[in-house]
UniProtKB/TrEMBL annotation:
Keywords: Membrane, Transmembrane, Transmembrane helix. Pfam families: SEO_C, SEO_N. InterPro entries: SEO_C (IPR027944), SEO_N (IPR027942), SEOA (IPR039299). The gene is LOC104701390. Residues 452-666 form the Sieve element occlusion C-terminal domain. The chain crosses the membrane at residues 114-136. The keyword Transmembrane applies. The keyword Transmembrane applies. This is Protein SIEVE ELEMENT OCCLUSION C. It comes from Camelina sativa. The lineage of its organism: Eukaryota, Viridiplantae, Streptophyta, Embryophyta, Tracheophyta. Residues 11-290 form the Sieve element occlusion N-terminal domain.
Length: 666
């Protein structure tokens, strides 16, 4: 049986033409790299000469992803194996069978064609050789090997096995080159047509040789079984020896041809990759200064260098064309989702987003802590990308290293903090980090530009709305009902108990007052987020304050003017709980007053003493009145009886305190 592959005897152009005629990809996508890793693991194990026990490795075949395909990976492997192991009539010639396989694989990309065929090789030789390897330690495996007429003694087929191992290694190395080329963003750059043309031709021929070599390997299975049968006579042994040398020679010849092709192809792909990287780097350097008609060119440059469907929302694949005419928020972060990401959900869940929900999208771009993704990080990404409402990069571990390095070098992305880069509908970057403004204002920050952030600070001052809107679920209801709010914090439980007791008494007097207690341990609150989908008001409050501080710092440095909001936030973030018992913030939606905790409880005691005479005052008003010194001398204000009936409380014109009512008869 002669399997010597002499491609030089044929016209390579004719072969390439035949291959292209049988190539009709329908958009299906197979994770060839992951499948090849598993194939390589299987073959490297079963083709070893001496293996005392099987390696304990995790089965990852089920994790190999196939998109937009009508058949599952196991079914595809089974369908191809039938063609490879059971040729039809008239297809005994290896050249004819090779081209028949390409007809069968016409819907797949070139890398998938090669790797699927290697998958059949792994399944076949794995099934044959695994019992042989286990025969010495497992009687059942030895029985299976005997029933299948397989040689248990390795010395009988050691040379053949070594030649097969070297050929398989060459096939795997060539397939890795094909995968690398398929992932190059050829469409996004303009390369030398001569270089690309030669490289493409070699990719086609490399795929052809991998498929042809795999068929040659499978056709030697009968010889492999003969090593067990040809032990009865001297003549049979001599014939086996001759056949063995011929088989080893055929495999070695195929291996050397693939090694030669691998050397040439890897050099060509490396040249293409270098040119592509240089051109992409040049485009990235001009990304902030270039003019664009829309956001499509920029999005393609960043995300679709290696994939036409690079994004997903839950399990649905997203084409970049679906994001045209939308403001894009690029969320760069490590794969573990921090509590602050849940504030970003306000952009989808906030009641006031109905007018702008179709005009922007968040794209989550997870970046690993190190250069290589870990299995844990991949699992975390899969969980959150299928759980959270925003769009995410579909397979971030396949992103171009050039793009990731650009994020780190030019956009100054660090692993410690997330950032939100905003691109408008024209593809212009209008805010290099809108994280803080989104955490503060949510959907009100649309279109999330630096100019819009300046406008928002002109419109908003120190208020309850600034502190609680989008954080406390009942805030909007309280505002509509005209209720006053008191936020307070302390680590002194005695003071907290006293404060709550006084507040309840004041509520019983008829004050429309709501209480929000916040612990001072904001760092601990961030670290102990045990239920990520339900961050506490406390967590979100401190995140909001830190965002306000960072946002204000940038403006104070440029304006060099005092800022009340910044001063108030700094007091809370740097509050000394050892020196003071607590703090309080009181007010309604558009207003807020910060009060020291001890002073606040002192004034609340006065309001309680006033009793029913304080009815009609607002809580903030009453606290401010209680801060004033009372009049030194008593005085009387005469009010007509009819007017007194309509006025719930009469205050002193000097100290503004509520006055006791008496009825006088004249």
């Amino acid at each position: 049986m002669n399997f010597r592959s002499d491609i030089s005897a044929l016209n390579e152009d004719i072969i390439v033409e035949q291959l292209l005629r049988s190539h009709d990809p329908d958009g299906r996508w197979l994770d060839s790299e992951m499948l090849l890793q598993e194939v390589e693991t299987i073959l490297s194990f079963v083709l070893q000469n001496d293996v005392p026990r099987p390696l304990m490795t995790e089965n990852c075949i089920t994790n190999v992803q196939v998109f937009d395909s009508k058949e599952t990976l196991p079914y595809a492997i089974s369908r191809i194996s039938v063609q490879m192991l059971c040729p039809c009539m008239g297809e005994n010639k290896i050249q004819t069978r090779t081209m028949a396989l390409f007809d069968l694989l016409k819907e797949y990309r070139w890398d998938a064609k090669a790797v699927l065929v290697l998958g059949v090789l792994a399944a076949t030789f794995g099934g044959l050789l695994l019992p042989v390897h286990l025969a010495f330690c497992d009687p059942v495996a030895a029985s299976i090997a005997t029933l299948n007429q397989l040689p248990v003694e390795r010395t009988k087929f050691r040379p053949w096995l070594e030649s097969l191992r070297l050929l398989v290694k060459a096939m795997v190395d060539v397939s890795k080159c094909i995968i690398k080329f398929e992932r190059l963003p050829i469409k996004q750059v303009q390369l030398d047509n001569n270089i690309v043309g030669k490289t493409l031709s070699n990719v086609y021929l490399a795929t052809y040789r991998v498929v042809k070599s795999a068929l040659a390997c499978l056709q030697q299975i009968p010889y492999f079984k003969q090593t067990q049968q040809a032990t009865e006579t001297r003549k049979a042994a001599q014939e086996l020896s001759t056949e063995s040398r011929r088989a080893v020679g055929e495999l070695s010849s195929l291996g050397y041809q693939l090694l030669s092709l691998h050397t040439r192809l890897s050099k060509q792909i490396e040249d293409c990759s270098t040119q592509i990287e240089e051109e992409i780097n040049q485009k990235l350097r001009n990304i902030n200064t270039g003019t664009h008609q829309d956001n499509q060119d920029v999005l393609h440059l960043l995300f679709s260098l290696q994939d036409d469907l690079p994004l997903q929302q839950y399990s649905r694949q997203i084409a970049i064309t679906e994001l045209k005419e939308k403001v894009i928020l690029l969320l760069l972060s490590q794969p573990p989702v921090e509590p602050l990401f849940f504030l970003l959900q306000q952009l989808y869940d906030h009641p006031s987003n109905t007018n702008t929900e179709q005009n922007y999208e968040i794209i989550w771009v997870p970046i690993p802590s190190y250069q290589k993704w870990t299995d844990e990080e991949k699992e975390i990404f899969d969980f959150y990308s299928n759980s959270l409402p925003w769009i995410s990069v579909r397979q971030p571990w396949l992103m171009s290293s050039t793009i990731v390095n650009f994020f780190k070098r030019e956009w100054h992305y660090g692993n410690d903090e997330a950032m939100v880069v905003v691109m408008d509908t024209n593809g212009e970057f209008v805010n290099m980090n809108a994280m803080d403004m989104v955490l503060i204002w949510g959907v009100q920050a649309y279109p999330f530009s630096v100019t819009r952030e300046d406008e928002l600070w002109e419109e908003h001052g120190w208020s309850m709305q600034l502190l609680l809107d989008g954080i406390h679920p009942a805030f909007e209801t309280w505002v509509k009902q005209g209720r006053e709010i008191c936020i307070f914090g302390s680590e002194n439980l005695d003071w907290v108990d006293e404060f709550v007791s006084l507040a309840r008494k004041i509520q019983n007097l008829g004050f429309q007052l709501e209480l929000v207690y916040l612990s001072n341990e904001r760092t601990k609150a961030m670290e102990e987020s045990s239920i990520l989908f339900s961050p506490t008001v406390e967590q979100l409050f401190w995140l909001r304050l830190e965002s306000i501080e960072r946002s204000k710092v940038k403006r104070i440095e440029s304006s060099k003017r005092p800022d009340r909001v910044f001063e108030e936030v700094t007091k809370l973030l740097d509050f000394d709980y050892g020196e003071h018992k607590g703090w309080g913030i009181i007010g309604k939606g558009s207003e807020a007053v910060t009060v020291d905790g001890e002073k606040l409880t002192e004034r609340m005691r006065k309001i309680v003493r006033w009793g029913e005479y304080a009815k009609g005052l607002g809580f903030t008003e009453a606290i401010e009145i209680a801060a004033e010194k009372p009049c030194e001398l008593s005085h009387t204000v005469v009010v007509p009886f009819e007017e007194a009936l309509t006025v719930r409380v009469v205050t002193c014109e000097k100290c503004k305190r509520p006055m006791k009512k008496f009825v006088a008869y004249q």
